[in-house]
Amino acid sequence: MALTEEQRKRMEENRKRALDIRKKREMEKEEAVGGFFAETTPQEKGLEQKRRTVNGATESEEDKKPSSNVLSEDRKDCDDSEDESLEDFERDASAYISQTEAQRAYCLPKGTIDVLSYIERDNPHQRGWSKMKLYSRAEVRRRARKRYGGKTGLILEREKRKKKKYEKELKEVKEMR
């Protein structure tokens, strides 16, 4: 059975499309760093996949034009000139941060983190679990420094919390004796 010219053309187009899709997926896997995406992927640029959340309400970017491209603007803020004010643990870290890591490293309460913009990714531990919210590290850092009065204020707050935790554990150990 011979194929018509139209069928051959269609097969060739489908083959090229499949190869493009495979190439995109391979590039995304290469960009992935520990389950987090190091750079903005082409899918994030699509209007249907970008979201901005405010007080639990999710809106598409089309509905909220002024806040468009919020995460990539934050990415621009992370240039080399700001490298001087980065802490040691931030230097080679990914551009995005999970909620628990943001609470732990930047001493921000959940309510403050909830109003920040985020992207959703499949959970790297189990695909069937809820999607993981990743926040822009630059935006989280900016909020934390504003809250605690700059870099030194944030460092002092972190040390204060460590000291409080140490004293609590010490008290528990003394009670055991």
Could you explain how this protein is built, in words?
Helices cover 51% and strands 14% of the residues. Helix 6 packs across helix 7. It is of the alpha+beta class and 177 residues long. Strand 1 and strand 2 form a beta hairpin. The strands form three sheets. A three-stranded antiparallel sheet has the order 5-7-6. It has a two-stranded antiparallel sheet with strand order 1-2. A two-stranded antiparallel sheet has the order 3-4. It starts with a helix and ends with a helix. It has seven helices and seven strands, in the order H-E-E-H-E-E-H-E-H-H-E-E-H-H.
Percent of residues in helical segments? Answer: 40-55%
Number of DSSP helices? Answer: 7
Alpha-carbon Rg, integer: 22 Å
Biggest β-sheet: strands ordered side by side in the sheet: 5-7-6
Order of helices and strands: HEEHEEHEHHEEHH
Number of strands: 7
* Structural shape: elongated
User: What does the oligomeric state look like here?
Assistant: single chain
Q: Which stretches are poorly predicted, pLDDT < 50 over at least 5 residues?
A: 37-83
Q: Report, as a whole number of angstroms, the end-to-end distance.
A: 88 Å
Percent of residues in β-strands: 5-15%
**Class based on secondary structure composition and strand pairing:** alpha+beta
Q: For the report, how would you describe the main beta sheet?
A: 3 strands, antiparallel
- Give the rounded overall mean pLDDT: 76
Give the topology, please.
Elements: H1 5-31, E1 32-33, E2 36-37, H2 42-45, E3 51-54, E4 57-60, H3 70-77, E5 96-98, H4 99-106, H5 110-114, E6 118-121, E7 132-136, H6 137-148, H7 151-176
Antiparallel strand pairs: 1-2, 3-4, 5-7, 6-7
